[in-house]
Amino acid sequence: MKKITFYTNPRSRGAIVRWMLEECGAEYDVVPVHFGKEMKSEKYLSVNPMGKSPALEVDGKVITETAAILIFLADMYPEKNLIPPVNSLERGEFYRWMFFLVQLEYAFIDKFFDVPSSEERRSVGYGDYDTALNTLTEFLKGKKYVIGNNFTVLDLYFTATLRWAIFVGGMLPNEGILVDYMNQHLTREANVKGKELDQKLAESMGIV
Ligand SMILES: N[C@@H](CCC(=O)N[C@@H](CS)C(=O)NCC(=O)O)C(=O)O
């Protein structure tokens, strides 16, 4: 069995990885990392030179970037059926929406910090905020899952990102197609357990 060490701050994108670790039924150690000094310390920079959370160490190899960690874990636990098989057409669709989401994440952050969409920004991968959001909304209309007929890591990542955009970012209305989609997955046992574990970790770190 591989040794997994999860470096996280429970108030970071680490919460998404936590959900995934629980979804996979993984066994892992947790190393809490505070924002600020500790995250930029020599010790943590030797794990993630970006000084950011989350990071996952698996048998001594470090993986950073939430999307990469999620895909890696989905492949590591094939029996959980959280990613379409390599070489299937669904795997192509999977990549499409995974890369779409990674860019949509920037659209949300730009919107949150009020970075203007303009002509000069037309080489930005996500296009413009409204088009990206409308594309997603149209795509998810009447759907429970992004791909096929079962929950995959894409649903986990989309749901967690939408949760952030709605509840933290306050940038989407708390109703409609995206919310209906999100609510179907938020109640998953692994998410509920992950949230509980993160809450306990936050308390032990003195984070309110
Ligand atoms: N591309 C990275 C982004 C990681 C990231 O920006 N994490 C934030 C918290 S959500 C962070 O650790 N910020 C602390 C800092 O930059 O000092 C990912 O997808 O994991």
CA radius of gyration is: 17 Å
> What would CATH call the architecture of the largest domain?
Up-down Bundle
Q: Which stretches of 5+ consecutive residues score pLDDT under 50?
A: none
The ligands found in this model are: glutathione
Helix count, per DSSP? 8
CATH fold-type name of the largest domain: Glutathione S-transferase Yfyf (Class Pi), Chain A, domain 2
Oligomeric state of shown chains: single chain
Number of domains: 2
Question: Could you give a quick summary of the protein structure above?
Answer:
The chain has 208 residues and is an alpha+beta fold.
SSE diagram, text form:
Elements: E1 4-8, H1 14-24, E2 29-32, H2 42-45, E3 55-58, E4 61-64, H3 66-76, H4 89-112, H5 129-140, H6 153-168, H7 177-186, H8 189-204
Parallel strand pairs: 1-2
Antiparallel strand pairs: 1-3, 3-4
Bound molecules: glutathione.
Glutathione binds at residues 12-13, 35, 39, 51-54, 65-66.
What does this structure look like?
The protein is of the alpha+beta class. It is built from eight helices and four strands. Strands 2-1-3-4 form a four-stranded mixed β-sheet, covered by helices on one side. α1 (14-24) links the parallel β1 and β2 (29-32). The structure holds glutathione. Glutathione binds next to loops.
